[in-house]
Amino acid sequence: SKPSYKWRRVLLKVSGEALAGDNKQNIDPKITMAIAREVAAVTRLGIEVALVVGGGNIFRGASWAGSSGLDRSSADYIGMLATVMNAIFLQATMESIGIPTRVQTAFRMSEVAEPYIRRRAVRHLEKGRVVIFAAGTGNPFFTTDTAAALRCAEINAEVVLKATNVDGVYDEDPSCNPNARLLDTLTYQEVTSKDLSVMDMTAITLCQENNIPVVVFNLNKPGNISRAIKGETVGTLIGA
Ligand code: UDP
């Protein structure tokens, strides 16, 4: 009989920074290919995978707002457009190794990708396609972490898997304290009260209110993405 896994449908959040690798301003094709291969392996097992991609490798609204008279909303729209570039890149990489993939954008860009339609996204997943959600929530002043929590709740995915460049959540900042301890588990309460920089408050409270567990893990360790998706212990698990 088929082995069963912890999650049936997951929401994988990949930040722009993670896509950049050593090439901080851009995309590292070795990383997008590694993601594609690992996602391919788990979709073959029957686990449904939706992605939310960030855009911080190209443009971060908050850090540009104010300069040259750029208002925050305009800056954030540029940031959302950046996530679309990453999404198209990831889609092309996935399809180059035979994974059927759809990009859905939070605002319309019909020549480039489908608009976000919840039921259609779910249908794609049921058919074994990977769905990449781009343009965040479609609203300025939000983040792609919040988009990940929101889409996860909307499509009834069971977990947000946050792929980062660190092994998980530490009790202290490991770049300041070499003795900082990696935490296996954490409650939402601890994340918010200790102000641990896991996700922004909007994202983490949305997860908490909807009982969505969050796994923070390092995507640079080979095999970690598929391990996280299969529900194996990796990184830090945040829950009630
Ligand atoms: N953004 C936004 N609304 C959203 C999601 C993203 O305005 O719902 C903008 C915001 O400017 C943000 C940028 O898109 O800085 C890139 O997203 P994010 O910083 O979340 O990407 P990541 O940190 O994951 O690379």
Tell me about this structure.
It is a single chain. With 240 residues, the chain is α/β, with parallel strands linked by helices. It has one domain: Acetylglutamate kinase-like (Carbamate kinase). It is 38% helix and 17% strand. The chain is built from 9 helices and 9 strands. The chain has helices spanning 16-20, 29-43, 61-64, 72-96, 118-126, 144-154, 188-193, 201-209, 224-230; strands at residues 9-14, 48-53, 101-105, 114-115, 130-134, 160-164, 185-187, 214-218, 236-239. The longest helix is centred in the middle third of the chain and has 25 residues, at 72-96. The chain is globular. The model has no long low-confidence stretch (mean pLDDT 95). It binds uridine-5'-diphosphate.
